[in-house]
Amino acid sequence: MDRRSFLKNAGLGAGAAAAATTLAAPAIAQATKDMVIVSTWPRDMPGLGIPAQRLAARIGELTEGRINVQYFAAGERVGAFDSFDEVASGNAQAYIGADYYWKGKHPAWAYFTAVPFGLTYAEMDAWIQYRGGQELWDELADGYGLQNFAAGNTGVQMGGWFNKEIETADDLKGLKMRIPGLGGDVMAKLGASPVSLPGGQIYENLVSGAIDATEWVGPFNDFFMKFYEAAKYYYYPGMHEPGSMLALGCNKSWLTSLSKGDQAIIAAACAEENGKTMAETNANNGVYLDKLIKEHGVELRKFSDEVYDAFGEASEAVFAETVQHSDLAARTHESFANARSEVGRWMLLADTGYTQQRNRVLGITI
User: Fold this and answer.
1) pLDDT in tens, 182-198
2) Tell me: the pLDDT tens digits for 28-65?
3) Within 10 Å of residue 59's Cβ, how many Cβ atoms?
4) Helix or strand run (H / E) with residue 346
5) How far apart are CA 316 and CA 344, in angstroms?
6) Which domains does the chain possess?
7) Residues 86, 77: contact at Cβ < 8 Å?
8) Rounded distance between C-alpha atoms, residue 76 and residue 15, angstroms
């Protein structure tokens, strides 16, 4: 797939309304509800844009047209980072994106995508569904007139693309890196200059030298972005996003105007896509990592223990500042940290313990 085919609509431009796609025709005109969904992802972007479009289409399909869905990719109606305000104001009914983009409004938003040294996909699902995460998310979102649902996950992300080797923490000093969320705050503690850019603007900034490095997602997503044209060193594992949860954020007044059945359908469609996006990512990452290495000469690198220890110290400093923001931020961090410890201990015994032994016996290596 040509990178330009999914980035062509990423910027704001004239005729945006014409780019909207009506995904479900009303079954009974008098009974329909319009649902405008705006996204933080470019149209047809593999791994993020396509799942967002799939979720939008699924809502229309499952409601048999009772909800008339119009989906706008980033830049087709509003800019990627304007999606939150568009929905909170009621100008659109929902956004699909990553909630850590809104940490400037309240730092607790970061926890509902990913935070440094945070939760993996399985741990995040456990926290959200059974360890109080959804209730805290609801409390946070309600303050902005929203109701949010888990609607995708990208798993443990790569550490990022760098135009030089990162051997010690000192190599991060002065580095201009695209990295949002609390992960960006960690990099700032280590002397880097974090930059927040929507997906559609990363490539040109990396190629031009405006940034020296970028994180994005993983091999499946990153392959189509062609970052390898500007940065050859591909580092793992990413400390900043170990299980990045994506979200459908609905205008709550609009959502509660629907029947209970249609509200349940939206929740079910999100739960379905939450699993699908993760499965699609896991199915493709290994394939595209091979392509990056064998076809484009990408050099895979692992962060040293020294660098990771520096990440850890900086993360604790960031968390110490975050909990001072408000009672809600403190309670969110405490709940997250408890889940990380208690669920994480089980995952270490079960999943990690098993996969390490299985891979050792079968000789499965990177």
Assistant:
1) 999 999 999 999 999 99
2) 444 799 999 999 999 999 999 999 999 999 999 999 99
3) 25
4) helix 327-347
5) 18
6) 3-154+244-283 (3.40.190.170), 160-241+299-362 (3.40.190.10)
7) yes
8) 8
